[in-house]
């Protein structure tokens, strides 16, 4: 949920992309290289293919295949694109559990999200005087103080390999093959499927263009218990962004005017 963080530079060539890391304190190069190799074995074609890596270099460097297409952030996702996103996510989440269990946990997951969102609420950020925003703040704070967020941590589900980042810039639409591939695996790791889907539905990038989250979820094979958990993770993640959008918040400079009020409406919609 970090706003405005840039950890790398890209050298995009004819057939490969060279990624140089500008920061790697959380093991970003190691995580990405491990994910690309795992995906090449268990879901080939879903992500860039690993070519070579210099993980001990300064800065660390990874070379991967260049994929065709354009990112979905900033677009009004069509029904076909949403179906392709769901197909990609289903394929990713079908990697066998015994394989995923060997992957290190993603740094951004349920415990971190609950702790960070509650910490932001405890700071009582200045979100202005707009009545709708204040209503969302009261409702969100009450939900965060309930036992619902704790259940998201205490009731884990089978693990999946996750991007741990719902930014739609990580979803690459191939116009020729009519499919979606996934890029930017530096925050990846073992994760909770419901959390990952909540991230995709409620990442702040959803406001840059249009993504029909309900349509996306309808294409995924969710059990009733998973559906409930996805709903609560959506609430949590939407609240996390909302609390960072005040005049002095870290997410405010990276989003256009009016984003706070739009996010307040989203929070109230999800909580009702």
From TrEMBL:
<protein>
    <recommendedName>
        <fullName>Aminoglycoside phosphotransferase domain-containing protein</fullName>
    </recommendedName>
</protein>
<dbReference type="Pfam" id="PF01636">
    <property type="entry name" value="APH"/>
</dbReference>
<dbReference type="InterPro" id="IPR002575">
    <property type="entry name" value="Aminoglycoside_PTrfase"/>
</dbReference>
<dbReference type="InterPro" id="IPR011009">
    <property type="entry name" value="Kinase-like_dom_sf"/>
</dbReference>
<feature type="domain" description="Aminoglycoside phosphotransferase">
    <location>
        <begin position="15"/>
        <end position="229"/>
    </location>
</feature>
């Amino acid at each position: 949920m970090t706003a405005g963080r840039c950890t790398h530079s890209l050298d995009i060539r004819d057939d490969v992309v060279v990624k140089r890391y500008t920061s790697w304190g959380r093991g970003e190069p190691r995580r990405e290289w491990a994910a690309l190799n795992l995906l090449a074995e268990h879901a080939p074609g879903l992500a860039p293919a690993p070519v070579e890596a210099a993980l001990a270099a300064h800065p660390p460097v990874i070379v991967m295949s260049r994929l065709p297409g354009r990112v979905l952030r900033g677009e009004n996702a069509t029904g076909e694109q949403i179906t392709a996103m769901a197909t990609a996510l289903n394929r990713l989440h079908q990697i066998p559990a015994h394989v995923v269990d060997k992957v290190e946990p993603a740094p951004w997951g349920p415990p971190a999200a609950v702790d960070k969102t509650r910490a932001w609420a405890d700071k009582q950020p200045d979100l202005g005087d707009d009545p709708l925003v204040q209503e969302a703040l009261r409702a969100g704070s009450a939900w965060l103080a309930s036992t619902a967020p704790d259940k998201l941590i205490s009731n884990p589900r089978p693990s999946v390999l996750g991007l741990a980042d719902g930014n739609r810039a990580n979803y690459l639409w191939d116009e020729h093959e009519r499919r979606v591939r996934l890029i930017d695996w530096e925050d990846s790791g073992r994760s909770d499927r419901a959390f990952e889907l909540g991230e995709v539905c409620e990442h702040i990038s959803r406001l840059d263009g249009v993504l029909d989250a309900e349509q996306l979820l309808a294409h995924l094979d969710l059990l009733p218990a998973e559906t409930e958990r996805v709903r609560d993770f959506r609430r949590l993640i939407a609240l996390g962004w909302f609390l960072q959008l005040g005049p002095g918040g870290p997410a405010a400079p990276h989003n256009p005017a009016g984003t706070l009020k739009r996010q307040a409406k989203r929070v109230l919609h999800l909580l009702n």
